[in-house]
Amino acid sequence: MKHSITFKKALDKLFEDRTRWLRSTVGLKKQGKPSIFNRQKLNKEIEKLQEIASNAIIRKVFSSEFKKNVLPKQSWNIKGRGWEEEQNNFKKWFNNTIPKNKSYIYTFWKDHHCIYVGKSGGNYWRPASHFNKTDFRGAHRIDIFLAKSPNQVSKLECLAMHYFKSTLNKVKASHKKWTKSCPICVIHKDIETELRSIFRFRKY
Known about the structure:
The protein is α+β, with helices and mostly antiparallel strands. It contains 8 helices and 4 strands.
């Protein structure tokens, strides 16, 4: 209910800003500081409404999709002196723990916050390649989510970005590529399409 109210207020405010000049012209609103409404403002408000919608449903969607499509999570606490030792320790743990040729997504955690979500087709190379990167120094844990089907990996990766709010991903896929199978991306795209239709700009 809280998210629904927030969404309604943001949508009402967007409509008010868009129609401010029109209502002021016929005396429905007192003249005040001119309200600028342009494509830049619309883009910003679309992202805000997308975020509100995500927060309203992401927990339920994430739980449902991961329950259906993911095997029990495997976690490894990063240990070692220097990134090379950490990387080697991870490789040993991976080979002894994770089934071969099994597609998965992985998450890096630092200070109890998710910093990165990635995916792999079945070996340790992708997560292992991050150990020498500056942004990953100080990470304390890696979680591995084995996918029941490789066809679900892209969707699961995108959902994890939305849910964990990984700081190094920033859910770019949802704004740029639109992962068609991701329920959150579908909603984001529908919101954008609808708002651009309602608040479209004239072409002269």
